[in-house]
Amino acid sequence: MPQTGKPQKTGAVKQITSHSNPIVKEIKGLVAQRKHRSQSGLFVAEGLKLATDAIAADWGVRYLALGPDARDNPIAQKAAATAKARGALILEVSTAVLSAMTRKDNPQMVVGVYEQKLLGAKDIDPAGATVWVALDRVRDPGNLGTIIRTVDAVGGSGVMLVGDCTDPFAVEAVRATMGSLFHVPLAKLSKDEFKSLAKNWPGTVAATHLKGSVDYRTPDYQVPSLLVMGNEQKGLEDDMADACSTLIRIPQVGEADSLNLAVATGISLYEIRRNHLELS
């Protein structure tokens, strides 16, 4: 992120034609390996929309790779100029090199490498918040990305990742956010940190749970709300549920034994925010 009062380092433009270029290998590693993403603090996001969202939100951009179609696109050129002014390296590459970077036969015209942002438990301030979502051991990157997108849509304040969760910076998760990753704060918490936070949370702490006896439409959700959702396969662990003030359930009448995690989270979020949302 640009720092006021300090000289801004200007980036550069580099043409890359070889699949074996070290930067291409670096980007491929970020796409494929969580370990590489964790060690570097970087991640890959594909597409012009995500690039413009990241730049508008002042996220740090390390590389912005432009394919042939991007060179005649005024939006892509503006994004590249802004990223370069902030110190990013702009890569002019062929479609084949883009494919090598992303491991996709039909890559997007723009591929960006961005700096990760993750809050800790001490960074979460309920004051002024609307609703946070806490996810216990979520494993599917598509679910996680969709939930981040839904939190953004309802005007939520952030997403807490509790315990061993899937990587929010995996390409599949980032893609599912449709750019909301750059607008929704993410926090990483241990189970004990979550319990301590939930114990002192000033608003409603509601969790979906099989033991829930309260229809999700019944509670008078107090702001700031905290919605707690469990693992896709095993649900919410009992000790996590015990840390919540209200256990809710979504009624079902068909033969399905459960709802998809992202769907259940979306239904619950829109009910929690029902009195605060209006068509514009």
Defining key terms:
single chain, alpha/beta, 60s Ribosomal Protein L30, Chain: A, 2 domains, 12 strands, 33% helix, elongated, disordered N terminus
Any overview of this molecule?
This protein has 280 residues and is α/β, with parallel strands linked by helices. It has 2 domains: 12-115, 60s Ribosomal Protein L30, Chain: A; 121-276, Alpha/beta knot. It is 33% helix and 20% strand. The protein contains 10 helices and 12 strands. The chain has a 7-stranded parallel sheet with strand order 8-7-6-11-9-12-10. Strand 7 (158-162), helix 7 (171-177) and strand 8 form a beta-alpha-beta unit. Helix 1 packs across helix 5, helix 3 crosses helix 4 and helix 6 (141-153) packs parallel to helix 10 (261-272). It is elongated. The two termini are 32 Å apart. Mean pLDDT is 94; it is low at 1-6.
Proportion of residues in β-strands: 15-25%
- Reading the helices and strands in chain order gives EHHEHEHEHEEHEHEHEEEHEH
Profile the largest sheet. 7 strands, parallel
Coarse morphology: elongated
CATH topology of the largest domain: Alpha/beta knot
* Global mean pLDDT: 94
- Structural class, from helix and strand content? alpha/beta
How many β strands by DSSP?
12
CATH superfamily of the largest domain: SPOUT methyltransferase, trefoil knot domain
Specify Rg, calculated over alpha carbons: 21 Å
Number of helices: 10
CATH architecture of the largest domain: 3-Layer(aba) Sandwich
Indicate how many domains the architecture comprises: 2
- Walk across the major sheet and give the strand order: 8-7-6-11-9-12-10
CATH top-level class of the largest domain: Alpha Beta
Give the N-to-C terminal Cα separation: 32 Å
How helical, in percent, are the residues? 25-40%
Low-pLDDT stretches = 1-6
